[in-house]
Every structure is written in structure tokens, then in C-alpha cells.
């Protein structure tokens, strides 16, 4: 796979042409939990700089799919290629991919025994072998970016949910990832905090980050997504540009789902 | 006919306190060393070491400490190996506490939320880094209350060493009760002393808990 793709920053708004190599490629991916077939023949090609929103009913396999991309879950069939590296059981490759892929979780998963600053510098210091002073600077840079530099010396438990999620985003960014995965980053938040987290994500999108985001925030999808994916029962049912996806859904199940979450 | 004052009773009992404390410390330190070893094995080689460690814990949790003491002290003597009461008591109490500490601390590591492993994995940390930097520090915090509870149990269980003739608090109180014909005073006093020791441990534990809470 070619690594000569033009930098995403040069073409932030548009996906780079397919021939230049995808950021993520899933080909015929199948996964089972015991007897339960959770991912069924998933095919997906995410271009560099592309933003994809994934939605679908609970239990449809959205989390499982994005967690396969950084090997938090193992797939049994098909291939997953991230930034030109195929995921196998080779621990070296898994580490390599995880260094390039950041992830944000529904429940933030900050390290409660470390300060905000330490949460951010941990991986740069231990994984990237960055000197502590540089790591501190880097961390402060991203804390300013998510607009909470003044919280640097507090502990996660002392922050609001929205602030914690922004710290989690900053923590992932400190590894300078090429791809960001989000698993329902706002669904554990009180409504008044959703906005601040979404704003952070929008600004990330504007900078050309490749993003895969499981969310039911359809306003966000409209605003930043290049494509919206609808999943149900382990399959990708429908995939389209947001305008077409929302105004003209093709499948019955998509229509039903959209009517449930948009209208009441 | 009784020349013992209450103070004499206390004085003689207090003289035995160091032995109880000494035995407790040996039991805790010995138990901690053994269980840290067993836990390292269990986490480093879960497939190979998992079952033997579980068996060890089950075996020593599932048999009375008293029987273990009998077996080591009298049983070994029958086989021609002479041991001292101190040795037998130290060995049995260490093994006993190692079983409980292993179980407790293992549980504390497992109690660290899965999300902590996932977040650190997603940042690219290696397994040993996750263990050392993320999971163990949190498990350590979780382990304070149950460990303090176990220490109190250990202190109380040192009284069993009196059975093989080791003179610690309980044995001292028996001797004094026999000499003074005042069992209520002697045993009452010793119960009070045990309480003071155990209560101090609990207080220290609570203090420690507060200091590391965030
Ligand atoms: N570790 C596991 N073992 C067995 N089954 C699992 C496991 N994790 C998830 N599942 C099942 O797999 C299915 C897909 O789960 P997944 O978490 O991917 O769904 P989701 O689309 O993210 O749902 P939600 O919107 O509720 O987060 C569910 O039916 C779930 O019960
Ligand atoms: Mg999910």
C-alpha cells in the first residue's frame, strides 16, 4: 500500500482520491462473540481526511466495529488495514497502529490517579519517549486547544463531564494520531455539556483529521461528516453523504431509525 | 491469698504484647512477600500459574489455621523434625495470611475498571506499562481497606500460637488467670489490649485511606 498520499491538511474538506491509499480499509470483516455473529461482512474504505459518522440502534455493532480498528477487539475473518498496516496478531504492528490511532470513549476513561497534565503526558513520555519538558509543553498546547489549560493540575474527578471528555480528546491528540475514533463521546454528558465537546470535535474536523465517530448527534453529522453510515444487526445497511442520507434514506430500517431519533 | 493487683495483671500482660506484635508483623510481612510472588507468577503466566496459585489459596483458606499449626508443630516432631513454637507459629501464620492477601490483592487488580486497560491500550502502552503505571496504582488504593481488615484478622489469629505453647498475649493471660484465680480480670484485660491494638490499626488504615483518596 502506498504511503505517498498527499497530506490531509492540503485537502481538508474533500476526501483524497481513492487511488492514493485509504486511511482505513475493512474488507469482508466478520466477527463473532462465541455463537453470536456481531459483525457481518463489513466493507468500508475511509479516505485520509475523511469524517465518517456511524449510527444505528443499540447492539448493532457500532462500537465493536470501531474497536476492531485499534484492536481493542479482534476480528476473526477478513482484513483490516490501518494507515497501510494490516492488523494481525503481531504485537509490533498492533502497537504501531495504536500509536497512530487515537480513541475517545463514552465514559472518558481518564486515569483517576493522575493529574490532567499527567494524563496527557503519560503516553508521549512512555510510548513516544519524549522528554518530560517537551511532553508538558505539548500537553499544555492541547489543553489550550480544548480550552481548559487552567485545569492542568487538577484530578479528573474534580472536572465536569464535558471537561473530562475534552481532556480525553486532548490526551489522544498528544500522541499526534492520524486517525481519531470516537465512541458516543457525548452520550454520557448532560445536555449543556454536549455542545462544548462537539465544538472541540468540529474544530478537529476543520483541521482535516480523519475521524470515525459513533454518535447520534445528527446536527454534528450534518455539519462535519463526509459520509454517514447506518448499521443494524452487524451490517452496514446504508452509507451516503449526509444530505442524501437524511433527506432521502433508501432502506426501510434507516427510515424507521431516523424517524425514531429525529421525530418523536 | 491473692497478692496480684490489677496493675500487676496488666503489667504482665503488657510484657507479652511485643510477642503478639512481633508475630503479627512476621505473619504480615511473610504473607505479603509470598503473595506478591504468587501474584507476579499469576499475572505473568496466567495459563501456567493460574491453577496452582488458586489451589494454594483454596487449600490454606479451606483448612483451619489450628490444624495447620498442629500439623507443623506436632506432626513434624513425630517425623523427627523438631521445631520451635515461634517457628511453627510464624510459618503457619505467614502461609495463612499469604493465602488471604493473594486472594484480596488479586481481586483489587481485577476491580480496576476495564476502561482503564482500554484507554491505556489505545494510547499504545505496553502491557507491563499499563500494569505498572495505570492498574497497580489504582489497585493499591482499592486494597487499603481490605488489607487493613486482614491485618486485624492476623493480629487476632496470633492467639492461636498459644496452643503450641508460644507465650504471646493469649498464653500470658491463661498463665495469669491460673495464677490469680481471676479469669474474668485476666481475659477481660487481654481482650481490651487486643481491641486497642486492632483499633489502632483500623485508625491508621482510615487515615491512610483519606490521604490517598482523590
Ligand atoms: N464482550 C462481549 N461478549 C459478548 N457479546 C458482546 C460483547 N460485547 C458486545 N457484545 C454484543 O455485541 C452486540 C454489539 O455490541 P456493540 O457494543 O458493538 O453495539 P453498539 O452498536 O455499540 O450498541 P450501543 O449503541 O448500545 O453502544 C451487542 O448485542 C452486544 O450485546
Ligand atoms: Mg456502543
From TrEMBL, chain A:
Record flagged with keyword Hydrolase: yes
One of the record's GO molecular function terms: ATP binding
Domain ABC transporter span(s) in chain numbering: 24-258
EC number(s) reported in the record: 3.6.3.-
Gene3D superfamilies according to UniProt: P-loop containing nucleotide triphosphate hydrolases
Family of this protein: Belongs to the ABC transporter superfamily.
Protein name in the entry: General L-amino acid transport system ATP-binding protein
Originating organism: Ancylobacter polymorphus
From TrEMBL, chain B:
Keyword Transport belongs to the record: yes
SUPFAM superfamilies per UniProt: MetI-like (SSF161098)
Cellular localization per UniProt: Cell inner membrane; Cell membrane
Keywords: Cell membrane, Membrane, Transmembrane, Transmembrane helix, Transport
Keyword Transport tagged: yes
Family per similarity comment: Belongs to the binding-protein-dependent transport system permease family. HisMQ subfamily.
NCBIfam families from the UniProt entry: HEQRo_perm_3TM
Protein name in UniProt: Amino acid ABC transporter permease
Phylogenetic placement of the source organism: Bacteria, Pseudomonadati, Pseudomonadota, Alphaproteobacteria, Hyphomicrobiales
Amino acid at each position: 500500500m502506498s504511503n505517498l498520499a498527499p497530506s490531509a491538511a492540503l485537502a481538508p474538506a474533500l476526501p483524497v482520491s481513492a487511488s492514493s491509499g485509504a486511511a482505513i480499509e475493512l474488507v469482508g470483516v466478520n466477527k463473532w462473540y462465541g455463537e453470536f455473529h456481531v459483525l457481518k461482512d463489513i466493507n468500508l474504505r475511509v479516505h485520509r481526511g475523511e469524517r465518517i459518522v456511524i449510527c444505528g440502534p443499540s447492539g448493532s455493532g457500532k462500537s465493536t466495529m470501531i474497536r476492531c480498528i485499534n484492536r481493542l477487539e479482534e476480528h476473526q475473518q477478513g482484513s483490516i488495514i490501518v494507515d497501510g498496516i494490516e492488523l494481525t496478531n503481531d504485537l509490533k504492528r498492533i502497537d504501531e497502529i495504536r500509536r497512530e490511532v487515537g480513541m475517545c470513549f463514552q465514559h472518558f476513561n481518564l486515569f483517576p490517579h493522575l493529574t490532567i497534565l499527567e494524563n496527557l503526558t503519560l503516553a508521549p513520555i512512555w510510548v513516544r519517549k519524549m522528554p518530560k519538558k517537551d511532553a508538558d509543553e505539548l500537553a499544555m498546547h492541547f489543553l489550550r486547544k480544548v480550552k481548559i489549560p487552567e485545569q492542568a493540575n487538577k484530578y479528573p474527578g474534580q472536572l465536569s463531564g464535558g471537561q473530562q471528555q475534552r481532556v480525553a480528546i486532548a490526551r489522544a491528540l498528544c500522541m499526534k494520531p492520524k486517525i481519531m475514533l470516537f465512541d458516543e463521546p457525548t452520550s454520557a454528558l448532560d445536555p449543556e455539556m454536549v455542545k462544548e465537546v462537539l465544538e472541540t470535535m468540529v474544530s478537529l474536523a476543520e483541521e482535516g483529521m480523519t475521524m470515525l465517530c459513533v454518535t447520534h448527534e445528527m446536527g454534528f453529522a450534518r455539519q462535519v461528516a463526509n459520509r454517514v453510515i447506518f448499521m443494524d444487526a452487524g451490517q452496514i445497511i446504508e452509507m451516503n453523504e449526509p444530505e442524501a442520507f437524511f433527506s432521502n434514506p433508501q432502506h426501510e430500517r434507516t427510515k424507521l431509525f431516523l424517524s425514531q431519533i429525529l421525530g418523536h | 491469698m491473692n497478692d496480684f493487683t490489677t496493675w500487676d495483671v496488666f503489667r504482665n500482660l503488657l510484657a507479652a504484647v511485643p510477642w503478639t506484635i512481633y508475630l503479627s508483623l512476621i505473619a504480615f510481612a511473610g504473607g505479603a512477600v509470598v503473595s506478591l510472588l504468587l501474584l507476579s507468577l499469576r499475572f505473568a503466566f496466567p495459563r501456567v500459574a493460574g491453577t496452582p496459585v488458586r489451589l494454594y489459596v483454596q487449600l490454606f483458606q479451606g483448612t483451619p489455621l489450628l490444624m495447620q499449626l498442629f500439623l507443623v508443630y506436632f506432626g513434624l516432631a513425630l517425623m523427627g523434625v523438631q521445631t520451635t513454637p515461634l517457628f511453627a507459629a510464624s510459618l503457619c501464620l505467614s502461609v495463612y495470611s499469604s493465602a488471604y492477601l493473594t486472594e484480596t490483592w488479586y481481586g483489587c487488580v481485577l476491580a480496576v475498571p476495564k476502561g482503564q486497560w482500554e484507554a491505556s491500550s489505545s494510547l499504545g502502552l505496553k502491557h507491563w506499562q499499563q500494569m505498572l503505571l495505570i492498574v497497580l496504582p489504582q489497585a493499591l488504593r482499592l486494597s487499603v481497606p481490605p488489607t487493613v481488615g486482614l491485618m486485624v484478622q492476623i493480629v487476632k489469629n496470633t492467639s492461636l500460637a498459644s496452643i503450641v505453647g508460644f507465650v504471646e498475649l493469649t498464653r500470658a493471660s491463661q498463665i495469669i488467670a491460673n495464677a490469680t484465680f481471676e479469669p474474668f480480670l485476666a481475659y477481660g484485660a487481654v481482650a481490651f489490649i487486643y481491641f486497642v491494638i486492632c483499633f489502632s490499626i483500623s485508625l491508621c488504615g482510615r487515615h491512610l485511606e483519606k490521604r490517598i483518596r482523590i
